[in-house]
Amino acid sequence: MTPAIRIDAALQSGVRLLEEAGILAPRLTAEVLLCHALGRERVYLFSHPEVLLSEVAWIHYGRYLHQRLQGKPTQYITGKQEFYGRDFRVSPAVLIPRPETEHVVERVLALNPEGSLADIGCGSGAIGVTLALEMNRRVLLADISPEALTVARANARTLGAHVDCLAGDLTTALAPASLNLLVSNPPYIPLADAATLQREVRDFEPHLALFGGESGNDIYARLAVEAERVLRPGGWVVLELGFGSEAAVRRLFSNWPKVQVDPDLAGIPRVFSAQKSGA
Prior knowledge:
Helices cover 41% and strands 18% of the residues. Helix 1 (7-20) crosses helix 2, helix 1 (7-20) runs parallel beside helix 4 (55-69) and helix 2 (26-38) packs antiparallel against helix 4 (55-69). The protein contains 12 helices and 9 strands. It is elongated. It is an alpha/beta fold. It has helices spanning 7-20, 26-38, 42-47, 55-69, 74-78, 102-111, 126-135, 146-159, 199-202, 207-210, 218-230, 246-252; strands at residues 80-83, 86-89, 117-120, 139-143, 163-167, 179-184, 231-240, 258-263, 269-275.
């Protein structure tokens, strides 16, 4: 029989374990994991500190803490991550959406293109589903990973977004001149940087969505060619930039007539957009 423990004591115990292991944001992490074990919102922890955990909740909480101590990201434990004000389902089959990627969404919304729009390498569907909801339109989601498309479909269904899902390697399954806008957060980390990544990223997130070849620019190079093929005249390509990738991406699109690079809140070049000739 597991001894009874109050919510506040369980929270303090979790914080201490995470602090001793050097886990970032130990208090917030413990709160999120305890809420997940209880099936409650965070406000419940502070309004009911005296409530005793059930044996099942205590077992779940202990397992979640153990998983986090082993390096598993909190988002993969809880199965969700907020993006653009909405909760998205995530699993180890997809990259965890980052706040910086919201700038990609904002750039597309600013362009507000007419016609067809596709999120290439959609992963969880965070970009494409968000655009479908914000723009009240149908968006194509494409990914080479069937498991990622399963997650994206689930997110679209749960959030009520109108999407079409296509399994394929980048745009290879798309017809020429079939899109008005192509958006992507492609793999852009150089393989040589793998050893420098946090273990949460290196050991748990899908390498297919992380690494862009030796230089990190392999997928950018392919998208530059494929965007030329699948975009209609005057169409746009919008890409998330990896750290230090701006110059290389500019060179890949050097013959495009209109190019713009927007920084994130830290001032780092984050979003690249270019318009195909013929507008």
